[in-house]
Specification:
Elements: E1 2-11, E2 17-26, E3 31-35, H1 42-50, E4 55-64, E5 67-68, H2 74-80, E6 82-85, E7 92-96, H3 97-111, H4 119-132, H5 137-141, E8 143-144, H6 150-164, E9 168-172, H7 180-193, E10 199-203, H8 207-212, E11 217-222, E12 225-230, H9 232-241, H10 244-250
């Protein structure tokens, strides 16, 4: 599904390298977790996968289903099935949540050569997905993320994921700012989307998210490189011991 090969990257117009040779493979159906201290490059990796223009790849490649995506813009990557759930979802005044969902869904369908959804079909899909995430109808009528709580913003992100049905879901610290009840709702929404054809790259600081979204693999990113990989037990080790020992071993 995803193969990252010797990826080096920096902020555009900045000589400071953030990613310094990331190698990572995520198989179809796999849930891979990325953990690491602040400033390790975790969010940068997610932005580059999504195609943000203010980051520059200086070396290496990103293969998605065997093909490089480096020359694809964000819309092309999204249409191909790449989705990024933001750590801090943006507020978009003046754009109703339902309008945004309709536009996003039909734009992707058009890019894939599919017909637009009728309004009744769209409403049925949105209402079913919203009910699973405990999102009420009034929230869908509000401007996207404007005045939403942290939990509401993250549930709106998972709602988009459920409706767009991406193949590669990149989640940038989705647990940030969530209380335990909101975390469980978001995790349940993610787990409902797990399938042999869909992969997840879950970026997080904390083990608690991985109690609910249990990963197949865990990778430690430090100073722009993967320094250790393992199974879900690695996340428990990090929770109990911190990063110091693993960093010392990799030095």
């Amino acid at each position: 599904m995803l193969e990252i090969k010797n990826l080096h990257a920096r902020v555009a117009d900045d000589e400071t390298e953030i990613l310094r040779g990331v190698d990572l493979t995520v198989q179809a159906g796999e849930v891979a977790a990325i953990m690491g201290p602040n400033g390790s490059g975790k969010s940068t990796l997610s932005y580059i996968l999504a195609g943000r223009s203010d980051y520059e790849v200086t070396e290496g490649d990103i293969l998605y289903n065997g093909e490089s995506i480096l020359e694809m813009d964000p819309a092309e990557r999204a249409a191909a099935g790449v989705f990024l759930a933001f750590q801090y979802p943006l507020e978009i005044p003046g754009v109703a949540t339902m309008t945004f969902l309709k536009t996003a869904l039909n734009s992707q369908r058009k890019a894939r050569g599919e017909g637009e959804l009728t309004t009744p079909d769209l409403m049925r899909r949105v209402k079913a997905a919203a009910a699973d995430l405990k999102i009420d109808a009034a929230m869908l009528k509000r401007p996207l993320n404007v005045g939403f709580s942290g939990g509401e913003k993250k549930r709106a992100e998972i709602l988009q994921m459920a409706l767009l049905e991406p193949k590669l879901c990149v989640m940038d610290e989705t647990d940030s700012g969530l209380d335990i009840d909101a975390l469980k709702i978001v995790a349940d929404g993610v787990n409902a989307l797990r399938s042999p054809e869909r992969s997840f790259l879950v970026i997080t600081h904390y083990q608690r998210l991985l109690d609910y979204i249990v990963p197949d693999t865990v990778h430690v990113l430090y100073k722009g490189r993967i320094i250790k990989s393992g199974d879900k037990e690695l996340a428990l080790q990090l929770e109990n011991e911190g990063y110091s020992q693993i960093i010392d071993e990799a030095a």
